[in-house]
Design goal:
Layout: H1 7-23, H2 28-34, H3 42-47, H4 66-79, H5 81-101, H6 104-115, E1 121-124, E2 140-144, E3 147-158, E4 165-171, E5 181-187, E6 193-198, E7 209-219, E8 224-225, H7 231-267, E9 269-270, E10 273-274, H8 279-307, H9 313-338, H10 349-356, H11 366-379
Parallel strand pairs: 1-4
Antiparallel strand pairs: 2-3, 3-7, 4-5, 5-8, 6-7, 9-10
Helix pairs in contact: 1-4, 4-5, 4-7, 5-6, 5-7, 7-8, 7-9, 8-9, 9-10, 9-11
Bound molecules: flavin-adenine dinucleotide (FAD).
Flavin-adenine dinucleotide binds next to strand 1, strand 3 and helix 11.
Length: about 375
């Protein structure tokens, strides 16, 4: 067991940090205000390999490990969690599903464009009536002659309006329950597929979240992703690694909030001294530093296990649950340490506070993570 990052990992962290400070921090409040994902950032993300972090060089990807993926997501989230969410959904959901379960032709068709950042990836599981109970989805794909015909609507889809390639999960045989669910890869602009309502969100506002509607959308059989009937099982595997990404996002957000609080505590003077000299503030800083380090270790452990080819259902959920909940606490304490200045947009505290809440909800709520963890423990 070696907790030290390699030289390459340290360089990677520094490079992504410098990129996020230069290319994201100056503009993130404007993107947040306008609820605008900056498409012109895509080629810059691609230039650093951040649109194809874990994909093989044969697809133009950066071929990084899962631990290195965490470092990238962490460093973007430290500055702007909304951009990190977009990078995580693109890499860890859409492209990852295609890379894990696509056939050679599908990978060759879709991955290089995703990896080069020519298109953003989206991944559609959730529906208005099927969130935590995703297998209760209503969207169907019915085989008609040479095509699958998709009907239904997916809700809360990251890049639902602006994504170029989307993985969509649909019921292909209701009688078979979760073994009657399949995945398809579709492209925006296909007849019968359109973006619906764009959500007006509390946080993560620079990341597009929209409904996607399918009305008699005809998809060729070559776009069935993975085996028919395996879509939901494959989805759970995608989420096992996706949740490591959300854990890393949580660690990065918590780190950013903690650093902002620490900086402010040293600058702000009350009663003739920096507020950092008060024990009440010091304990908040100390508790957050400990919690962030613990969350980072849980996250890297899950990532390292994934890199070793081991199943991480339990470890991914533990990391996601713990990291997202300590991130909520870090963002809350960051606002508290800033006092009234934590409540206004001149300081980063209020944005961390708004962005963080998604992390205990997306890719499985905290309640669902506890359910997954308990199920794993009880089945041992
Ligand atoms: C910004 C954003 C981006 C998103 N991006 C995507 C995306 O790209 N693709 C995608 O497919 N989805 C996406 N989602 C959807 C997200 O994954 C769901 O919102 C989430 O899974 C919760 O589903 P729900 O909102 O329907 O809540 P519900 O499932 O209705 O849950 C409501 C409450 O009930 C609790 N609950 C539900 N069932 C149980 C249970 N069995 N035991 C205990 N408590 C329970 C939940 O924990 C929660 O507190 C996104 C959501 C947001 C807000």
């Amino acid at each position: 067991m070696d907790f030290r990052p390699t030289d390459e990992q340290q360089i990677l962290r520094r490079t992504v940090r410098e990129f996020a400070e230069a290319e994201i921090r100056p503009y993130m409040m404007a993107w947040d205000e306008s609820q605008h994902f900056p498409m012109d950032l895509l080629p810059k993300l691609a230039g650093l390999g951040l649109t194809g972090i874990q994909f093989g060089e044969e697809f133009g990807g950066a071929g990084m490990s899962s631990v290195e993926y965490c470092i990238c997501i962490e460093e973007i989230a430290r500055v702007c969690p909304a951009i990190a969410l977009s990078v995580a959904a693109h890499n860890g959901l859409c492209a990852s599903h295609i890379a894990q379960f696509g056939d050679a032709r599908q990978k060759a068709q879709f991955l290089p464009r995703l990896v080069r950042g020519e298109v953003l990836g989206a991944w559609g599981l959730t529906e208005a009536g099927a969130g935590s109970d995703a297998a209760g989805m209503r969207t169907t794909a019915v085989r008609q002659g040479e095509c699958w015909v998709i009907n239904g609507a997916k809700t809360f889809i990251t890049h639902g309006a602006i994504g170029g390639v989307m993985v969509v999960i649909a019921v292909t045989d209701r009688a078979k329950g979760h073994r009657g669910i399949s995945a398809f890869v579709v492209e925006h602009g296909m007849p019968g597929m359109r973006a619906g309502k764009k959500e007006n969100k509390l946080g993560m506002r620079a990341s597009d979240t929209s409904e996607v509607v399918f009305e008699d959308c005809r998809v060729p059989p070559s776009q069935l992703l993975g085996e028919e009937g395996q879509g939901f099982i494959n989805t759970l595997q995608v989420l096992d690694s996706g949740r490591i990404g959300i854990a890393a996002l949580s660690v990065g957000l918590a780190q950013g909030a903690y650093e902002a609080a620490l900086r402010y505590a040293k600058e702000r003077r009350q009663f003739g001294q920096p507020i950092a000299s008060f024990q009440a503030i010091q304990w908040k800083l100390a508790d957050n530093a400990v919690r962030i380090e613990a969350a980072r270790l849980l996250t890297y452990r899950a990532a390292d296990m994934k890199d070793r080819g081991r199943r991480t259902t339990l470890e991914s959920s533990m990391a996601k649950l713990f990291a997202s909940e300590i991130a909520v606490k870090a963002a809350d304490d960051c606002v508290q340490i800033h006092g009234g200045y934590g409540f206004v947009k001149d300081y980063p505290a209020e944005k961390y506070f708004r962005d963080v809440k998604l992390l205990t909800i997306g890719e499985g709520t905290s309640e669902i993570q506890r359910l997954v963890i308990a199920r794993q423990l009880l089945s041992e």
